[in-house]
Amino acid sequence: MSDPELVKSPIYSRWHEPPPEQMTERRIEMRDLAGSVRTIIDRLVATAAPTELIVELAAQLRRTASQLDDWPHGTQYEGFAEAANAGSDPHALFEHSPFIGRSNPLAPPMALREVDGVLEGEVTFGSAYEGPPGCVHGGYIAGAFDELLGATQSLSGNPGMTARLIVNYRSPTPLHTELRFRGELTGVEGRKIFTTGTLSAVEPDGTERLCAEAEGLFVSMDLGGFATLKSARERAERDRIEGR
Predict the structure, then answer these.
(1) pTM, two decimal places
(2) How far apart, in whole angstroms, are the C-alpha atoms of residue 126 and residue 129?
(3) CA-CA distance, 185 to 15, in Å (whole number)?
(4) Measured between alpha carbons, how far is residue 37 from residues 31, 106, 146, 169, 226 in Å?
(5) Mean predicted confidence (pLDDT) in 114-136
(6) What are the beta bridge partners of residue 192?
(7) Which of 52-56, 67-71, 108-112, 149-153 has the lowest mean pLDDT?
(8) What is the residue-wise DSSP string for 114-147?
(9) 189-218 burial, b for 16+ CB within 10 Å, e for fewer?
(10) Domain segments of the chain: what residues?
(11) CATH number of the structural domain 4-19+74-228
(12) Chain Cα centroid distance, residue 195
């Protein structure tokens, strides 16, 4: 259990899913669209479909993608300052996350929740995340830990960015299996924030098998630092769209 004295920030509602009646129609439909794309990705990576069908589907998806060409894209990131605002949607920052964002088709997605000062999570990785036969690629495991411990370190009340992430792989992590994460805030020294985490697979008999452990060091940043990153990102996106 993490030290209660370390848990300073009342942000726990961010990690709990809002009820459908509190979500906008756009968010609900974005999640549905992302879910459909996620299913395509999962089935496409190892499909035995005939070439004729692949050609037909490729043409359909090109037409679908072209429908978005005339609309601005790539600038929808919700900045840290907006997310920190008490009047803003506490879930907006994470909706397009590559690991927990339900509106991001690249996300598995992970589900996170805070329980007594500890971050707990569940995820099931599909075929698109395969590394060794039948197992999750180690890079995705590391990325999931970065997301988990990044959420965990925000409990310190003065969150920052990853400085070091160490992952110890203990046993193969299976695909298509419920996986459980646990992250704890273990210490704060000045701007340094220390965290630890575990990943376990749920066996058919309900027991958990340890698959990996991680240690994360984060360095806190002030809101100005996040704002600077956001501004630089927006300038780069404008330059890309204008073809500079």
Answers:
(1) 0.82
(2) 6
(3) 16
(4) 10, 9, 24, 30, 30
(5) 95
(6) 189, 219
(7) 67-71
(8) EETTEEEEEE---GGGB-STTBB-HHHHHHHHHH
(9) eeebbbbbbbbbbbeeeeeeeebbbbbbbb
(10) 4-19+74-228
(11) 3.10.129.10
(12) 17
Question: Under 8 Å CB-to-CB from 77, ≥6 apart: which residues?
Answer: 96, 230, 233
Residue 79, pLDDT > 50, answer no
* Amino acid, res. 225: G
What sign has the CA pseudo-torsion 234, 236, 239, 243? Answer: negative
- Residue keyed to tokens 């129609």: 25
Q: What are the φ/ψ torsions at residue 76 (nearest 5 degrees)? A: -95, 10
- Please give the pLDDT value at position 10: 41
Question: Please, where are the H alpha helices in the chain?
Answer: 25-44, 51-66, 80-84, 138-153, 223-242
Contacting residues for 91 by C-beta, under 8 A, at least 6 apart = 14, 17, 18
